[in-house]
Amino acid sequence: MNITIPAGSCPLYQKERGGGIILELREDFILRSGEVWLLTGDNGLGKSSFVRRIVLPAARSENVDSPLICWFEQDFQLQCEAIRARAAALGKPIPANEESAMTALLNDFAAAAGEEREVLYLFDEAEMYAAIPGLDGRLAPRHTLLLISHSDATLARYPQARRLNFTALGGGVSLLKEDYAQP
Prior knowledge:
By secondary structure, this protein is of the alpha/beta class. The protein is built from 5 helices and 11 strands; from the N terminus they run E-E-E-E-E-H-E-H-H-E-H-E-H-E-E-E.
């Protein structure tokens, strides 16, 4: 997997009367197999929108070998209900709680990926998912992990992660040059 989003302006929101959020990507953003990325910054600066509106379409538009995408939303409750409904429809055990729903989804993705297929795991508000038993052990070297987080504990948990820090700048949002998270 090699997903490249070129440097430049990335509109995230447009308002009817002008304005909105324009992300200024100062350098190419490249997701490669086996990397861990942290997207950090204050609330409302466009981290989730960047993933939804820029990263996901780029990942889906790759080629036949594009990765499976396992996306854990900020508000996992609705997603959890969908996982329960799917389990019921397939005659599988229905997850009793959020943790078991997350584990079921991860198991499904591991089975679908098999030995060769890459998975792009996206965790929005990653601190919610830190409690998943054995999460890090489930991530094969070919899988990519992208975490959106506000937590110093998440930063400390992934000291090897590459980091993109969103900051408010001149009425928009600037995605700073990648750096490495410091625990």
